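User: Sequence in, structure out. Go.
Assistant: Echoing your sequence, followed by the C-alpha cells.
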Amino acid sequence: MEKRFDPQSYERRWQAFWRDHHLFRARSGADADGAGAGRPFCIMIPPPNVTGKLHIGHALQSALQDLVVRWKRMQGFNALWLPGTDHAGISTQLMVERQLEAEGTSRREVGRERFEERTWEWKHKFHSNIRQQLEVLGASCDWSRERFTLDDGLSTAVRTAFVRLYREGLVTRGEYMVNWSPALQTAISDLEVETREVKGKLYHLAYPVADSDQRLVVATTRPETLLGDAAVAAHPDDPRYRSLIGGFAVLPILGRLLPIVADSHVDPQFGTGLVKVTPCHDPADYEIARRHGLVGEKVIGPDGRMTAAAGPDYAGLDRYEARRRVLERLTADGLVVRVEDHVHNVGHSQRSGEPIEPLLSTQWFCDMTAMAERALEVVRTGELELRPSSWDKTWEHWLADIRPWCISRQLWWGHRIPAWYDRAGGCHVALDREEAERMAGTDELEQDPDVLDTWFSSGLWPFSTLGWPDPEAPDLGTFYPTDLLITGFDILFFWVARMTMMGLHFTGETPFRAVHLTGLVRDADGEKMSKMKGNTLDPMDLVEEYGADALRFTLCALDAPGRDIPLDLERMAGYRAFGNKIWNATRFALSRIGEAEVQAELDLAGLEAPERWILSRFSRTAEEVGARFESTRFDEACNRLYHFFWGELCDWYIEFAKPALSGAAPRPRVGEVLLTVLDRSLRLLHPVMPHLTEELWQRLPGISRLGFSALAVARYPEALAEWRDDAAEQTIETVIGVVGRVRSLRAERGLSPKLDGRLFLEAGEPAILESLVGQRALVESLTGSSALQCGRAGDHAIRDRVAGIDLALEIDLPGLDHGEMERLRRELERLEVEIQSAEGRLANPQFIDKAPPQVIAGNRERLGELQERRRLLVDQIRSGA
C-alpha cells in the first residue's frame, strides 16, 4: 500500500466507478415492490441555477444531503436523491443578453423566438457543469432521474398548477405594488432584493395649506415622487395636526389639492410627524391610499424615467435627474425647509445592482391565504418538523399575515403564462393554445408575454419531478411525500414555505416530513463571504488542495443547529490530516495481519480485554452516530466519528495490537478483530468520507465474502449488544489512563522513553489494581517499564494519581550517560532564555496597560509552566549527576 496519502489519486476513480456501475439508481413502481428493494426514502436537491457555479453553500448542502442518502442506502432503504437544476429566469437571461450585447445586438433586435433558441443553446452548453461539480464532491445522486425546471414534464406540471389555481379563483390579474427593476425591466421577488445601507439625504419640504397661510412640512428621501402625491397624512392622535384633518394641502410645483388624512400607520416621532402619500411608488403609501380611497399618479415608468403624469418639465427624465430638478424648483419657490444627512436602507436588485423602484404594476397574483393556513397547521401539529425548532416562530410570522404573491415576470426565459387574449380583450387561461382556441371560439389569440416567477416552478419541485400531475406516475406513488429537505434558512419562506403550501394544495400531503435548515457559510472570522470582500472560497479549489472528503467532513462537522458556519482552512487541513491518520493506520494493519481476514461474524470466545474493549467501543459509537444522523445532528456525529477513529482505534487499539501482532505478547485473533473493526468502522464513516473509505475498504482481505460490490452499497453497521462489554471498557480505560499519565510524567521531566523504569501500583481499589496486573504485558510494553508490580516504590520515584490509583515510576537516573546529561543542560539553558523573556514582558508597563486581560493571563500561565519545568529539570540533573 502506498506510503503517501494523496486524495487526488483515488477520488475521481471512485466517482467514475460508482457512476459506471449505476450504484445509486433507485427503484419505483412494480420494481420497488420486488424483493430486496427496501423501504423508499427520498431527498430532493435544492436545484442550483443551470448555468451557475457551485458555491460553498451548495457544497455544504450537498455534503449533508449525500451523507443522509448514503447512510439510508446502506441501511437497506430504496434511497433516491433526485438531482436537477433550475432555469433561473433572470440570471440566465442576463447572461445571454450580455452575450448578444458583445455581438452588437440585443434580444429586442433578434426577437423572442430566436432569443429563446439562443438561451436553450446556452443551457445545453453549460448545464453539465453543475453535475460535474457535484460528482467531484462525491454526490451519490440518481442521475437517471435528473430534472430541469423547463423539462416537458415539469412544464406540464406548471401549466396544470396555474390553470387549476386560476379556475379556483386563487390566481388573478390586476394592479398591485411590486419590486420593479428598471434595468431588468421586470418585477422581482423579495429574495432578489438586496437591502443596502445608503448615506442619503432627508429633505424637509413645505406644502402650503389650502386657503391658509400655514405650511405643512413633510420629510422625504425621494423628492421626485411628490409629483405623484395623493395626500398628506398624520397620525390621528397627533395634536399638532388634528384640526387640519379633512382639509387640503397644495401639491408644490403641480398645484393639485391633496386631502389631509389621519392614518395610524404614520409615526409621529419620525421627521415632522407628517408623510406624503405616493400610492404608486411606495408599499406603505399604497396601503394608506387603499384605506382612504385615494388614487395616485404613476410618475416613474418601468424604465426608471419620469412619465407624462410628472408634468412637461420632468417627463422623460431619469428619476435621479428629476430629483435634482425638482429640488431646484422647490428651492426657488422657498419650499425646501431643511436638508440633513440621513442613513437609511434602500433595496437594490441583486442581479443588476441598481436601486429597485416600488411600482404599481399590472401583474398576475396568487392568493396564498388558505394555503398558508394549512402550512401553518402542519408545523403546529408536528406533521412537518423544522429543524431547529426555533424557526417555528419565523414560520408563524411569515405565514400568519401572508400577502398575495406576484407570480409574473416580464422576461422571455421561463414558463410562459398560459393565458391568451382575444381581440375583444377577453382572457382565456388554458393548458395549451388549442384548448384556449376552443374556449374563445377563435384562433386569433395573443399569448400573455410574461413568464412565471422561477419560484412558482420551484414550488412544485418535490412532486413535479416525480411525475405529477399524472396520478399513476411510478415515482410519485413510490417516493412522495419525500422524507427530508436540507436547505439554507435564507429561503425558508421563498422556497420551503411555497413548496409546503403548493404540495398540500395539489397533493393533500406535506411534500417532506422534516426540513433541516443550515446556516450560512462564513469566513474564518465570521464575516459573510462576498466577491467585494475577496473572502469567497471556491469548493473546487478546496477539493484540489485538501480533497473532497476533508471538505465534506469539515462542513458536516461545523453544521450546528441555528448557527452560521465559520470555515477555517486550518480546520480543513486538520481533517485532511485525519484522513492521513486513517490511511496510515490501515496501511499498518495490512502490513501486520498475516493471513487474517475480515469476518462477517466474529467469534468472541477467548478474546482478551483489548479486543473486547475495541468491539464494545465500536458498538457504542455505532449507536451514537446512528442516533445523531437520525436527528440530523451531523456535527455531533462527526465529532464522535473523529474521536473514535483518531483516539480509540488509531491511537490506542492499534498500539494495543502491536505487541500481539509482533509476537512479543500474543493474544487470540488480534488480526481478525483489527480487520473486522476496520471494515465496520470504514462503513460507519463512509457517508461522510466516501472516497477514502471506499479506497481503503476495497483493500481489506476477505471483503469478497461479505457479498457487496462496493462499500457504497454495503450494509451500514449497527450496534451489536453481544459486542458490548462494560467490564472490558472499564479495564482498558484504566490502562489508557495509566499509560497516558506515565508517558506524560516522562515527557514533563524530559525522560527518554528508552530509559528503563519500574512501575509501582502503590494504592487503589483492589479490583482495579487486579485488572491492571492482568494486563501486565500491555502496560509494560506501552509505558516502557521492565516491571509492573503492586507495592511501595523508592523515595526518589516520580509519583502521581490517576483513575483512583496511586502510582509511582522509578527510574535509575545515575545511569544517565554523558549525552543525556548534555541534552538536559541544553534544555535548561533554553528554558532560562524563555523565562527571562516572559518575565520581561510581564514587567513591561506598556504591555500590561495595552494588552487584553486574557492575553496577560495567558502569559502569566505560560510563565508558571516554564518555571515548573525548570524546577523539574534542575531536580533531574542533580539526581543524575
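User: And one key feature?
Assistant: The first strand starts at residue 40 and ends at 44.
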